[in-house]
Prior knowledge:
By secondary structure, the protein is of the alpha+beta class. Among the domains are: 184-273, 2-Layer Sandwich (Phosphorylase Kinase, domain 1); 278-478, Orthogonal Bundle (Transferase(Phosphotransferase), domain 1), CATH 1.10.510.10. It is built from 14 helices and twelve strands. It has helices at residues 4-19, 23-26, 31-37, 43-181, 191-197, 237-250, 279-283, 294-312, 373-378, 383-399, 406-416, 419-422, 432-445, 456-477; strands at residues 187-188, 206-209, 214-220, 223-229, 259-263, 268-272, 319-320, 329-331, 337-339, 346-347, 359-360, 380-381. The strands form four sheets. The protein has a six-stranded mixed sheet, sandwiched between helices. Strands 7-10 form a two-stranded antiparallel ribbon. A hairpin with a 2-residue loop joins β3 (214-220) and β4 (223-229). The chain starts with a helix and ends with a helix. InterPro entries: Kinase-like_dom_sf, Prot_kinase_dom, Ser/Thr_kinase_AS, U-box_ubiquitin_ligases.
Amino acid sequence: MPKSGTSNASIDSLDFYSRDPKNSYTGRSSPSDDTALFAPLSRGSVDVTTQNLDFTQVSVNDNSSSSSMWESEMSRLKLELKQTMDMYNSACKDAVSANQTAKELHQWKVEEGSRFKQSRISEEAALAMAEMEKAKGRAAVEAAQKSQRLAEIEAKRRRYAELKARRETEEKNLAINDLSRNEICYRKYTIEEIEITTKSFSNSEKIGEGGYGPVYKGRLDHTPVAIKVLRSDAAQGMQQFKQEVQVLGLMRHPNMVLLLGACPEYGCLVYEFMNNGSLEDRLFRKGNTPPIPWEIRFKIAAEIATGLLFLHQAKPEPLVHRDLKPGNILLDSNYACKISDVGLARLVPPSVADCVTQYHMTSAAGTFCYIDPEYQQTGKLGTKSDIYSLGVMLLQIITARPPMGLTHHVERAIENGTFSDILDPTVPNWPLEEALNYAKLSLKCAELRKKDRPDLGSVILPELSRLKELGMSSLNTA
């Protein structure tokens, strides 16, 4: 390939001639120019001109070849440039198309995601509706079952009421016959004798009222007596009458009220008369009676526990009182206490008289604030059912307060260090340390769970007997 300098010159010359062949003559001004051009020359001049013409011819040929090569090269480059531009344009179009496709795919993805979300929400809503319908179905089935059970219970209740009424009538007749044949140690009084001593059940002779019926004061066989009369509308009255006669007629204990006699035909019970009435009346000073000294209160507590232990150790089966409260503790003129009103008492087998297993009763009996919570809830009766009642009553003996919430008040007073404030203020000289020990024992007796309550014979009675001796020593040295 020619050198760049020569090539450029030749290309310029070729371009000159090739582009404007006529230009070689355009500069002529006259025929003299042609003559001058072709004027005769010397030999030397002719030879040089010939050589020059040969060189020019060669140069023209070389320049023509170089021009063709450059044109071919230019054409090739232009073709490559065109192809490159076409490829670039095609790539741009592909990029635009790909971008558009990507946008469409993204939009499709968003739409598909939205449709999937809507579908999932719809599916979840459908499942929730299905679950709701199932729940409604179950509720309807349960309601139908409950209605059926209620109907069955109501039918059983009606049958039970009918049987109960019939059984009470039969029991009343049997009780009269049994009491007539039974060799229980009590005297039978006629209704005429009862009416005479009570002045025909005059209100002036009435000294009290209980769930069983009214109580009248009288005098039989030259002895003051208390006569309890069964009300005609008393629930299970004849059963209580029979139970009380059987228990008190066969049992004798210094801390159990003495049954002197009865009038079975009219449900009248005749007891020894207790001059100081009930412990409840004396604690709350009914009739403005003087307060009971703390020494006597400790004595009363020990005697109540003694009488209760006698019931729990009854043979052949333990006896549970079920209604132990201050209103059923009677006091004589010397403040000797006696447990009364055993009409609700129940005999339980010795094997189930402990706090672990209890005898099951169909319904709880007793006075609300004194009823064992476990017995009230489950109907399971045991000797420790009486221990709860005893605990509440023991707290009343030192506080002279109503039973409602009493255990809570005493516990809070002990925790806050204000125990002395909760003691009965009518007693000025409480032995605080011993009273505190007494209160803690009482709270243990009133534990909600039977298994947490102490044993009457081995724990409660020994401690109360110790406090009784302390009180008696204080009275003797006073």
